[in-house]
Q: What sequence folds into this?
């Protein structure tokens, strides 16, 4: 239940319940739902947050029904609905989704992990206004492209390494690409036993996360996309010194302050990652576990590699290390800037 509530965002829930947050509520909403600007489905922030919750609840009910008719009992269907649509990934089984051993169940989880990793506001627009809202969104298209490319490369490495036959390679690849990219963290096999080339792809996906305004963690696809455009813009202006080429997203010009905020976010994000990884290494934790546990907790992915693989847990890490990773999870879930806002005295004077 806490993962389901946390998936939509505790802050968004508070805005629904406590509308008198006023300006402070708007600041927190922007931090919890990052992007060029908050999705204004309604003039008031509280009305927008309420609509997002209605969509979220509707998707949850639909997934529960599908899982129940796919053969899961009511308890398994509701607990795994809570942790898949929220891109949270906690399972009541130590073997995670492998316990069900059902391609149909995996397919349902796959669909709802993808939906959970997309912008919830776009789901509302697709249902009630413009049926093409998702497809027209530049971030969502890039999100699908990442899934496609990563799946193809991962399936190739698994097939080439003779880990599985091609069909099984594709099945396990697409599920775990989506699971890791959306920071859900479900597993159907122990990918910690895969070749290093395959595990490296999953490691890279841990940094990205889902779309802005989704239930997933990570850096978010929109930030990655805009940083790529920013790098291209810098290279263009290096060659064409007098040219003016604004950065555009969804046919809108991206203001400079937005790009500055994204650069600041990434710097802080990687500083936290490097700091936590360094501290863990000083405690004697091995290299693979150090890197993957740091990004898996900061991005709220869940499983990492090494000692914290999908069929293992964090119990073997030293106690001070677990305190560091706990802080990572808290900071990452609140989108970094929210933590900074919370700790800023000026915020409470509004």
A:
């Amino acid at each position: 239940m806490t993962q389901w509530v946390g998936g939509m965002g505790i802050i968004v829930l508070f805005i629904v319940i406590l509308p008198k947050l006023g300006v402070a509520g708007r600041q927190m909403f922007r931090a919890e739902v990052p992007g060029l600007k908050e999705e204004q489905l309604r003039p008031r922030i509280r009305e927008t947050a309420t609509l997002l919750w209605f969509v979220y609840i509707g998707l949850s009910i639909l997934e529960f029904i599908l899982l129940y008719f796919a053969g899961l009992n009511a308890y398994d269907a509701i607990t795994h609905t809570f942790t898949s649509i929220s891109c949270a990934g906690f399972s009541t089984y130590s073997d995670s989704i492998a316990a069900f051993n059902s391609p149909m169940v995996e397919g349902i989880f796959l669909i709802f992990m993808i939906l959970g990793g997309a912008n919830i506001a776009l789901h509302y627009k697709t249902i009630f206004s413009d049926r093409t809202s998702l497809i027209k969104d530049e971030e969502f298209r890039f999100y699908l492209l990442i899934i496609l490319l990563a799946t193809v490369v991962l399936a190739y490495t698994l097939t080439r390494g003779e880990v599985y036959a091609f069909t099984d390679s594709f099945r396990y690849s697409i599920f775990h690409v989506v699971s890791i990219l959306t920071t859900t963290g479900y597993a159907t096999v122990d990918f910690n036993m895969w070749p290093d080339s395959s595990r490296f792809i999953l490691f890279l996906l841990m940094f990205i996360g889902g779309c802005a305004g989704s239930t997933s963690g990570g850096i978010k696809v929109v930030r990655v996309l805009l940083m790529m455009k920013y790098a291209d813009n810098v290279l263009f202006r290096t060659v064409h010194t007098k040219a003016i080429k604004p950065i555009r997203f969804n046919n809108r010009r991206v203001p400079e302050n937005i790009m500055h905020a994204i650069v600041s976010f990434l710097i802080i994000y990687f500083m936290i990652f490097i700091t936590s990884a360094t501290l863990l290494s000083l405690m004697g934790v091995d290299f693979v576990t150090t890197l993957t546990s740091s990004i898996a907790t900061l991005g709220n992915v869940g499983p990492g590699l090494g000692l914290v693989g999908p069929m293992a847990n964090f119990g073997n890490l030293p106690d001070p290390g677990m305190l560091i990773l706990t802080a990572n999870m808290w900071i990452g879930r609140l989108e970094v800037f929210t933590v900074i806002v919370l700790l800023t005295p000026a915020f409470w004077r509004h």
User: Anything to note?
Assistant: The beta strands are 248-249, 252-253. Confidence is low (pLDDT under 50) at residues 21-25. The chain has 17 helices and two strands.
